[in-house]
């Protein structure tokens, strides 16, 4: 029980580091929460017009999920799931930002890569394909997240598939405003400034 609690705390603390906010502030761009969607994730950082900072945010937000999984798993294999889930929740609900964080997609991917890199490639391929065809980051993320639990289930990884089914439900919840805008035809496309 102590190991699980330690993995949850470690994962949450690592996941709650708001890289999008820290990176944009360090670059002298102020608070990324004051532009676009007000989100701290890579898509909103892209709205600053700086693709490099957006890519860096994406990388670090993903890596914190992967690191949580790999470090906890190194101590004990079953702890990887707990730490990964906690990192995902930490990104979305960071205590230092009044529990208002990102939408979790990059950290979702990072946790996925740490637990099953093959499915991480599937997620990335689906995301890139949908994003290329539609230029909607939200639609790409929602589609890729929907594929993941199904793919994991057919790989015979039921426990990991269940975890990602829960995480996918949370991603959909966090994207409810995006879903409404997609249905209304008012969603911003990748590269648009708001």
Question: What general form does the structure show?
Answer: globular
Spell out the helices and strands N to C.
Answer: HHHHHHHHHH
Task: Specify the helix fraction band.
Answer: over 70%
The number of distinct helices, counting runs of at least 4 residues, comes to: 10
Tally of individual domains = 1
What is the mean predicted local confidence, pLDDT?
92
Low-confidence stretches: none
Task: Report the sheet-strand fraction.
Answer: under 5%
In angstroms, what separates the terminal alpha carbons?
Answer: 47 Å
The total strand number stands at 0
Q: What can be said about the biggest beta sheet?
A: none
Please tell me how large the radius of gyration is: 16 Å
> What structural class results from the helix and strand content?
mainly alpha
Summarize the structure.
The chain is mostly helical and 194 residues long.
Q: Would you write up a description of this structure?
A:
This protein is mainly alpha-helical. 72% of the residues lie in helices and 0% in strands. It is built from 10 helices and no strands. α2 crosses α4 (51-75). The longest helix is centred in the first third of the chain and has 25 residues, at 51-75.
